[in-house]
């Protein structure tokens, strides 16, 4: 799973409690190693940001206003990527149940969606590099982008490894608790099926991935609503 780095913010010793609450949430996100926990923490972060914005005037908000639109667009695109991937997993499950094993369509989809994801990841890195001003609200923006990047990295295809099929029987070494293992196991299983290799519990593996994708979709939907509220709050500041 992709990790992300959050810059430390130098705050005055007598910072406002609402500012400190935002900073605390940023630090907790930095310490987290779970994508789903990060999405949950991001929701709490924006709740603190809302409280912080209620005390602010309109100074220096133009740049974060532009950023709020960008974050909404990015979140919407990632939700669409996850939805497409979950639908593709469901279609593969149906194909295997019918014993038609039409896995080639899934492989084609994975290649296409991976190209989309890699391009989008490059765009996200450019957005983060363009954040030259690092006040607290820009740090919130950068953290949000980093978490979005981790979600995309999770669903992107792993690097090609010719030994994956030969090591299929060793996949039990991958801990079931690792979120990355679900995507990798499905990719390994599908590649095995295309070579006529029987894979045990492939439906269970697909089901686990489908549930994780659904959880991520639900988490992003919650964040999307938070981002809408965040933009409205920014627009309402005089």
UniProtKB/TrEMBL annotation:
Q: Which InterPro entries match?
A: BPS1_pln
Pfam families reported in the protein's UniProt record: BPS1 (PF03087)
Output the GO biological process annotations, alphabetical, semicolon-separated. root development; shoot system development
Q: Which PANTHER family match?
A: OS06G0725500 PROTEIN (PTHR33070), T23E18.15 (PTHR33070:SF115)
Q: What is this protein called?
A: Uncharacterized protein
């Amino acid at each position: 799973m992709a990790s992300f780095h959050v810059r430390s913010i130098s705050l005055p010793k007598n910072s406002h409690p609402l500012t400190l609450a935002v900073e605390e949430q940023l630090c907790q996100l930095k310490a987290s190693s779970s994508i789903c926990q990060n999405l949950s923490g991001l929701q709490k972060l924006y709740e603190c940001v809302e409280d912080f914005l209620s005390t602010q005037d309109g100074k220096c908000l133009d740049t974060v206003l532009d950023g709020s639109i960008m974050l909404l667009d990015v979140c919407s695109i990632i939700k669409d990527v996850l939805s497409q991937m979950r639908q593709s997993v469901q279609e593969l499950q149906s194909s295997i149940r019918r014993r038609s094993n039409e896995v080639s369509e899934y492989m084609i989809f994975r290649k296409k969606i991976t190209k989309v994801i890699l391009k989008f990841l490059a765009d996200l890195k450019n957005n983060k590099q363009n954040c030259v001003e690092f006040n607290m609200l820009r740090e919130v923006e950068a953290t949000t982008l980093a978490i979005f990047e981790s979600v995309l990295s999770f669903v992107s295809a792993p690097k090609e490894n010719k030994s994956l099929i030969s090591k299929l029987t060793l996949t039990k070494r991958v801990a079931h608790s690792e979120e990355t293992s679900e995507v990798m196991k499905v990719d390994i299983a599908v590649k095995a099926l295309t070579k006529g290799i029987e894979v045990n519990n492939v439906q269970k593996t697909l089901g686990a991935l489908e549930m994780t994708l659904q959880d991520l979709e639900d988490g992003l939907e919650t964040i999307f609503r938070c981002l809408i509220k965040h933009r409205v709050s920014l627009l309402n500041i005089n």
